[in-house]
Specification:
seven-stranded mixed beta sheet, Alkyl hydroperoxide reductase/ Thiol specific antioxidant/ Mal allergen, Thioredoxin-like_sf
């Protein structure tokens, strides 16, 4: 079940990075299109997914960012904004009772696409996320 409607502004949230710094979605308002990935409970594939997403992000422009949110502690990963949601409050705000999912927004937080995932294997491949961001950039610049 999807909890947000395309075209709406995704809720703001504030969480801590692995380094203890606070990050809010609004920190990037007007600056970058976002991929927001909520990792399902650790299933052994999270490190591989993070590595693949990190590789994809390195090809993105400075106006495209990836935020990864997990209830579990994750190590900092190059190119990714990794956040911890230990009580899964932000996850519930976005997914309801879903285990994981993904959201694509423009630089102002307007939702373009979303999906849910029962496991990390159900998340879109990082290349698909890259294609979504290209689409968002095309729509926003045209």
């Amino acid at each position: 079940m999807q909890t947000l409607q395309a075209g709406t502004i995704v809720p703001n949230f504030t969480l801590q990075t692995a380094m203890g710094e606070r990050f809010s979605r609004s920190d990037l308002r007007g600056k970058a299109a976002l991929v927001i990935v909520f990792l399902p409970a650790y299933d052994g594939l999270n490190p591989t997914y993070l590595a693949n997403l990190s590789t994809a992000v390195q090809r993105w422009s400075h106006e495209q960012k990836a935020v990864v949110i997990s209830a579990e502690a994750l190590p900092p990963t190059e190119g990714l904004i990794v956040l911890r949601d230990p009580e899964a409050k932000v996850m519930a705000q976005f997914l309801g009772e879903g285990k994981g999912g993904w959201f694509i927004t423009d630089r102002y937080g307007e939702l373009y696409a979303q999906g849910q995932a029962l496991s990390t294997a159900d998340l879109p491949k990082p290349m698909s996320l890259s294609e979504w961001l290209e689409y968002v950039n095309m729509r926003c610049s045209g």
